[in-house]
Amino acid sequence: MKRALLVLSLLVLLLPLQGAKPSLTATIPPLTLWLSEIAGPQMEITTLIKPGSSPHTFALTVSAAASIHRSKGMVLVGADLEPWLKEMGNPKKSSIPLFVLADHCAPLIGPADHPNPHLWLSPRRMAKATPALGEFLARLDPANAPLYRKRAGEVKRRLEELDRSLTQQSRSLSKRAVVVHHPSWNYLLEDYGIRVVATVERNDEETPSPRRIQEILETMKRERVDVILTEPNVSAPWGRMLSQEGRGREVVLDPLAFTPNLKSYAQFLEKNFLLLKDALK
What we know:
The chain has 281 residues and is α/β, with parallel strands linked by helices. The protein has helices at residues 2-14, 29-39, 62-70, 123-140, 145-170, 186-191, 210-223, 237-245, 265-280, and strands at residues 23-26, 44-47, 73-76, 98-100, 177-180, 195-199, 227-230, 249-252. The strands form 2 sheets. Strands 2-1-3-4 form a 4-stranded parallel β-sheet, with helices on both faces. Helix 4 packs antiparallel against helix 5 (145-170) and helix 5 runs parallel beside helix 9 (265-280).
């Protein structure tokens, strides 16, 4: 009986609404910000990863699966950020059209078999990928193709302007090295000539040992680094140890755009960069 009710609920969720706008699914909020500027009011966008969640630990639910199946297309990062999509079968063989950001952002950082997936934090790479997203939407909704192409051109220009601005601002930094909690910001740091001297958690399963923390403290002292980049909802004893014993400053950056009232993808990136710039000035 319970199984039958679950199947019935899923079927109801999958029913399309008469006269509804085409729907798209984005896996993470930054992609939704970017996508919404190009899709405009012509499409409805659903975001799978909600505030407080992580794409690394997300578990696919019935409602999330229904949202995906109901979509006319899906925008994801790729580079193995969303391994849970494999629960629905091979994403490359999906009947739902996919836009995979990683396919448009070469070169990727890291080994070919396990690249860093945090591509959305590089305005340079996002500007490069934007025209392809416009074409993706144009194929999904040919009647509004000129609108999507026009908006994609505008978003690309704004991101290129942001990149030029951040490049100019980065030239005045007096510090050019950081310790990072997680390799989220490595693309942006690489874009603007800021070195990562140590990564506390090099993968999602790793908990740093006391020996590892001591090694990082020694690196901070040797490299004269006192800025530690961390993320919202990270509360770990190593953070206090590095900031106190290493005389460092923790800077909380938001890689998943959970900050309220963000109006654009460019604003999301610029707000984070200004926090970083203030710590490195």
